[in-house]
Amino acid sequence: MTAENGRVPGPLSGIRVADFSRVLAGPYATMILAELGADVVKVEHPGHGDDTRAWGPPHAGGEAAYYLAVNRGKRSVALDVKHPSGREIAQRLCADADVVIENFRPGVAERLGLGHEQVRRANPNVVYCSISGFPGEDRPGFDATIQAESGYMHITGETPSKVGVAITDVLAGLNAAVAVLGALHRRAGGGKGERVEVSLIGSALSGLVNIAQSALVSGEEAVAYGNAHPTVVPYQTFHAADGRFVVAAGNDRLFRALCEAIGRRDLASDPRFPTNADRVRHRDALIAELEAVFATRPVEEWTALLGAAGVPTGKIRGVLEAIRTAGDATLEVSHPTAGPLELVRTGFTLESVPADRDIAPPPLLGQHTLELLAELGVAGDQAARLEQAGVIRQAAMPAAP
Could you tell me which Gene3D superfamilies the record lists for this protein (predicted)? Predict the structure, then answer.
């Protein structure tokens, strides 16, 4: 998103990102950079594009919802980087880019002439970010396998269960975006380019935070606590008269407020429960007392009562219900084939960038191929020959209604 294309410039306006990543971690990172104003050029295979374009249903306007989730604000260039002419164009793009992001299997980028050292020779100031499943290993990394290998499944559910979203990809994408921003800041202060390496397994282990540290300190394997917290009590789901909800009394003051609100001051003065350490030791006894109380009234009454007392509480909602309840969780873009399209916002705002600004929709495959090639000095008959040879692809835009 740049001032030149009529969109509100962000703090990364003027920064070009050559995005060779696909699926989720890399595209999530580059969507964040696009939200901040970078010109993200998404390089895709002209035959099928990003894998997630086929990961449906559901679809909107012929595009899979999975793809639509993390690709707004970008330009799509359909380019066969395995063809010598396509490889030359990709190298030219990298030479002109501020940031290159890729998640090729080990050795592939180098064989294509797009490896870090090769790009840096032509572009010494480039920030080059590689995303892998397992650093230094020639094995694919998909979220489900990373969740298995990282301990997430071990600590989730009564039997090993996967977190319901590809959380390790999301964490890796966030780490990649943060690291790239740090490298760009260093470069802006007079530094050179930077090599950034992010892995799904490293991001997952880092994301275990207190669970990992507790295992290191205690020397004991972490255990699954289901919907409870291993070291804070009460901090879990409870059954009300008509459903389930969550209470998160994260300190002694909140526990006393909880006891006051539910009419059980005796629990706050009970010698088994005065501190969190005591409550952890006597978890089963306290939870049994609270379950008996919560079973007497419906969820809405408990969440209203506890909320008024300042005790963190929440109804267990479905995804669509949660989006609608949040109020301002989505934005709308005008998509070439889907028309008005609702997308979930990123989890941050900047005062200088209006939340209601015009945002480019997720692009069609090859929507901007000829536009980008012209910027790189490839146009006219040369571009036509490349398209005829299948090296590039330009999307046919639907007629305006």
Answer: Crotonobetainyl-coa:carnitine coa-transferase, domain 1, formyl-coa transferase, domain 3
Whole-prediction pTM: 0.91
Catalytic residue numbers, as ranges: 169
Q: Which of 25-29, 192-196, 221-225, 377-381 has the lowest mean pLDDT?
A: 221-225
% residues pLDDT > 70 (the chain): 97
Q: Write out the chain in H/E/C secondary structure.
A: CCHHHCCCCCCCCCCEEEECCCCCHHHHHHHHHHHCCCEEEEEECCCCCCHHHHCCCCEECCEEHHHHHCCCCEEEEEECCCCHHHHHHHHHHHHHCCEEEECCCCCHHHHCCCCHHHHHHHCCCCEEEEEECCCCCCCCCCHHHHHHHHCCCCCCCCCCCCCCCCHHHHHHHHHHHHHHHHHHHHHHCCCCCEEEEEEHHHHHHHHCHHHHHHHHHHCCCCCCCCCCCCCCCCEEEEECCCCEEEEECCCHHHHHHHHHHCCCHHHHHCCCCCCHHHHHHCHHHHHHHHHHHHCCCCHHHHHHHHHHCCCCEEECCCHHHHHHHHCCCEEEEEECCCEEEEEECCCCCECCECCCCCCCCCCCCCCCHHHHHHHCCCCHHHHHHHHHCCCEECCCCCCCC
**Each residue's pLDDT tens digit, 295-354:** 999 999 999 999 999 999 999 999 999 999 998 899 999 999 999 999 999 999 898 888
